[in-house]
Amino acid sequence: MGFTMGLNLLLLMAMVATNILSLYHLSSTIQTPKSAAPQPVPDHLLHQLHTIRATINHLTRHHPSPPATTKAAKPTIPSDLLLYSQLSPIASSCHNHPELLHKYMSYTPFSLCPLDSDLAESLILRGCHPLPRRRCFTKTPPKSTSSLPQNPFPSSLPDANVLWTKYSCKSFSCLNRQNLNLGFDPPHEVVNFMTYKSELDLPIPQLFQIAKAANSVLRLGVDIGGGTGSFAARMKLYNVTIVTTTMNLGIPNNEAVALRGLVPIHAPLQQRLPVFDGVVDLVRCGHAVNRWIPVTALEFLLFDADRVLRGGGYLWLDHFFSKEADLDKVFGPLFGKLGYRKVKWATASKNDSGGLKNGEVYLSALLQKPVSK
């Protein structure tokens, strides 16, 4: 109540000051002889008027007047969104999607959060990230298992540790029946990254041989767009810590990563990596990083990978695909901007229906960051 009265008093004082200044200017104009040229408004008065009006606009934005009863009332801005905007800045992209943002922030404080993960990801993918914080309790599975597997490749993932109400499938076995390559069957994933089938492949044992030959060490890494975390799971068996950025998009990728004893980071490709500068040894870009990303966004992604890599660290582009002409004219020069040493650079035709139709090729590249730049 006191805060509201203070705002109203400040608004009243600002409006009174504006009127006094306006009357002063008007009276000085009336006293001027008709034959004389109109006198310009003094700069200090213009500055004061501008400051007062800016203050009024700022206050009315944060404390809007109630809508008129005679007209259709506009949607009320959620109180927690107003509160959060005073405590912490909101990404500008959030304001570009007010309906989604207001829906996300319309909840009952201090109670259970609504099951709106799809809404949250819709905002994230539109650049509203990090999302505004909320004062509600996240719902958890009612009968989760008391023990979780230590092995990152367990025989199966426990269904009881996932809230299935927000997904079309209600079990991991359902997801596996739909598509075994989604990554939810750990025994099926155990051979990934270990075998050499074509020039595009880089088995993990070979990666360690390359690092050893260069007197480099692999301890920490980031897997960008890593799905269910199979790469991080395999590297864990080599005592390498990999964090996986992944989105759910209708399937429980983040839950699967966590159930394997790994760390998921719920972040889109356009988000700055929440990792400090020059601290990781490896950044892998999987199938999520491809030609569908706008070139400017991809350029920022690559330079953010450069930011978190230490000198001598590796950037691994794993099966990046694009049109063959674009690889020569666009993406090849883009990767070259980094100035990295080409440890591996292999291309091959993308032979699925989409690849044949669009004349696409795969690129697998292992690039090493210079020790000093």
UniProtKB/TrEMBL annotation:
Q: Where does the protein end up?
A: Endomembrane system; Membrane
Question: What cellular-component terms does GO give this entry?
Answer: endomembrane system; membrane
Keyword DNA-binding (UniProt): no
Q: Which GO terms describe its molecular function?
A: methyltransferase activity
Q: Does the keyword Methyltransferase apply?
A: yes
What is this entry's stated membrane topology? Single-pass membrane protein; Single-pass type II membrane protein
**Chain coiled-coil ranges:** none
UniProt KW keywords:
Glycoprotein, Methyltransferase, Signal-anchor, Transferase, Transmembrane
Instruction: Please give the InterPro entries that the UniProt record associates with this protein.
Output: Prob_Methyltransferase, Put_SAM_MeTrfase, SAM-dependent_MTases_sf
By its UniProt entry, which SUPFAM superfamilies does this protein fall under?
Answer: S-adenosyl-L-methionine-dependent methyltransferases (SSF53335)
Question: Span of the secretion signal?
Answer: none
**GO terms of biological process kind:** methylation
Q: State the family it belongs to.
A: Belongs to the methyltransferase superfamily.
Q: What is this protein's name?
A: Methyltransferase type 11 domain-containing protein
The organism named in the record is Prunus persica (Peach)
User: Species lineage, top-down?
Assistant: Eukaryota, Viridiplantae, Streptophyta, Embryophyta, Tracheophyta
